[in-house]
Write a structure and sequence with these properties.
The complex is a heterodimer of chains A (about 325) and B (about 650). By secondary structure, chain A is α+β, with helices and mostly antiparallel strands. Chain A is built from 5 helices and 17 strands. In chain A, a hairpin with a 2-residue loop joins strand 6 and strand 7. Chain B has 4 domains: about 140 residues, no CATH class; about 280 residues, no CATH class; about 35 residues; about 70 residues, no CATH class. Helices cover about 50% and strands about 10% of the residues of chain B. Classes of the chains: A alpha+beta (about 325), B alpha+beta (about 650).
Amino acid sequence: MKNTAAPKKKPGRRSPVSLPVTITRHRTYMLPTRHGMLFFLALLAMLVGSINYNNNLGFLLVFLLGAMSLVSMLHTHRNLVGLRVLSVSAKPVFAGEAAMFDFQIYSENVLRPALVFSIEKTHRTTEDVAAGAVTRIPVRATTRQRGVFSPGPVTVHTRFPLGLFYTWSTLRMELSCVVYPEPLAGPFQVHESTADGAEAEGPGILHGADDFMGMKTYQPGDPIRRISWKTFSRGQGLFTKEFGGRGQTILIFDYDAVKSDDAEKKLSRLCDLIIKAARTNIEYGLRLPETFIPPGRGEQHKHRCLKALALSGKGDKGI
Amino acid sequence: MSEERKYTPALTMALIVAVFPHTLQLPLWIIAWCIGLWGYLLASLRFGWPRPNRPVRIVLALIGIAGLLATFSTRLGPEAYIGLLAVMAALKPFESSTHRDRMITVFIAYFIIISSLLQTETFTITLYMFFSVFVTTAALVRINNPYGGYRSDLKRAGILLGKAIPLMIILFLLFPRMQGSLFGMRQAGQARSGFSGQLSPGSISSLVKNDEAAFRAEFKGRIPPPEQLYWRGVVFSRLDNGSWHRPERVPERSEPLQGQNPVDYTISIEPHNDQWIFALDVPARAPTRWSTFYRDFTIQSRRTISRKRRYEMRSYPGQKPGKSDWGVDAARRLPKEGNPRTRELAAQLSKGADNASQIVDRGLKYLGDGEFAYTLNPPLLGDDPMDEFLFESRRGYCEHYASAFAYLMRAAGVPARIVGGYLGGERNPFAGYLVIRQSDAHAWVEVWYPEAGWNRVDPTLMVAPARLNQGAQGALPPGELSGGFAGKYLGPVQSLIEQVQWGWDALSLQWEAWFHGYSREEQQALLEKLGIYWRSWKGMSAALLFGLGLVAGITGLYAVLQFRRPRARKDPVSKYYEKFCRKLARAGPARPAGMGPKDYAAFAADRRPDLREEVKTITDLYIRMRYGGDTNTETLTHFKNRVHKFKPGQK
């Protein structure tokens, strides 16, 4: 009823909206719910009964309930229209896990009870949006494979207050969530490699190194793995790390060293190794066909590595 | 569990409120059934008792249906339907784990509400309907608002109801009414109240304790004196096996009765599930198209009066029915045998009498002299009831006197018949109409004189003259119709209650007169005032369109109003900060547009170095609350005090 002014485009054809977006009346649709239909059917029966018995009190009740459902339709509509979606963010997840998209929702002036947000039909988040405050609403979407996950449009609907009408708005927006590969469990062994970094054997995808002793200026012929990329990236020139003795280990996880025919499996293995390494205090780096991440430590480093795994071979998404 | 705890009490409440008006009609076991199941349900929510699972619920439902079959097997009327609704309503809230179940439960509650309206249409039930719809709607809001509280649900239901009422009124007034019904009226299976087609000892005295209104009469002019307040209903002239019957076939009287000093009044009759129409003796004509005026001067509705009706009447209360001689033969007939002593008395009365009226006078005198008593508790009479009554027990109620007197007169050769109806009525002190109650039921006698025709004679008055002025309660010996405890000890409270009752009664009559009277004719009159002439299909659709247009207009207005920005309620933090800014501006440095609070503090401090400290403190507090997420009420109070005490003074 409210959509007469809406453009004739189908909702699906609409270009994605950019945030923040306000749900206007042109973006909303309304239909009676199944229970609403049943209610109107019952109301019709009551009306026929009232006409038949010429019962004024029956008429009164039928018109009261009818009018109330009409007013409830306005309330249902009002409950949705004017809602603002400020931003969406999602923390990275591993493939197969559910991604939680956090919507920052704002409602000016009115409390909007029982709004239902969903990306997938099976996972709905019902929440009240308070007046004049930003409400955080997590909406779940299941991921399947690594990469950048962009689920379908998000739907906001409400049946409040009487459940007789259903109004909804489908927002096509740029949702994205980085999905790390699913970790593939395997042994976590450190094969001591020779100090010069010769190829490791067996499942030795790890390049062990001895204690870091210091830096020296790069000389041609130095193993490329010992180049201090950190200092290089700071623009301080090329240095080679010097290691000596045993103790502190630096691991470099190397894509090519993983023994598997399947590229995805390789990435999954690497993922597992990174997670395990991150639990220890070991410094680690990652080598992928297209990138090299110098050794490091900490949450941020871990995520940088995992993200590199997620995006490996999917085109440069700007790490 | 928590879901159930949230929804089930609300749903149960809605059902209780909806079923409540039916309690009087429901069999006792169904009431017990409802109370038991609901009580268990609510207690189980509180104490965590086990809830019946599906098989148990099915068994319970079967037990309920079996009980219904046992109770109503032979009469599948509205009572059985309501019984079924109540039995199911008691079970339904146990099954409310899904949204669908809960919605259905609410719809059942609405259905129960409408079925209570089909039963009674009083003002009270109308008001109750709004209450009931309110409660049910609040439950409906609740089940659609998982995080809401009771208060917000009730408020929302109230807003919906309030906004719906104007629309309801428009639809009610303008929705086209039809003449007659679509599929024919239901046959009322309800108990008759008031008179029946026969009169036997006990048939009127059983009504004395019934204080319900039989009908109400609003007079156009003054209320006639008590001796004229005989409300004519049924004429019994056939005596058969000790009880009096209405003749099987009474011809219709085609022309209205002519007379002098007419009295015009309106009667609002309560449903009695029979066809009697009561009117002041003697009525002039049938009041409406749906009723017939008979040659014994009674009126009957063509249809059972199963709901409130209103009709305009004209009567000639000072007048005798006159020289109609219909029914005289029937009024002479007596069984060949029986009651020998009564016949003997009749022979004595008629001996030497000049005319019939002398016999009647002698007969009345006999009752007046003979130590007769007016009582509700007469002894049972045997094979010759008239003899036993007139010569032995001499105790009885009006039907005994009327019956014995009519018999006596017939035996003495004077045609006589019994008229059943009501005598008197109580005036509503607020509105001036009369309420005639079932307890005012009365029977009197009509005798026929060859020269004057039918003549009213009330033998009861010979025994209990107070019956005329003070009603049955005043005429009966003290204690027989006991007012009981309340009457004795609650004097002032009782009179207050009575006042309230009269006021309510007057209000109800006003409402019901208008509300139930609102039919096709009234609608036409209303529409003609609006310039819509009904009689054609064109007019009808114009009216409907007009109504729908109004509804659409109001709905549109609601839609616009609800999108109007409510006046922004300033939070106290902004309010006090602005106050601070105003104070500071008055003292010198006004806040330039668009300047942030920190900059403004620096700006102000430059111009008023003396205020630097104070301005900084207040601004810091403001920033802490506004941007720093400090929601502590103490901070706010401190802030308020600081702003309050901030007195920059001119420089």
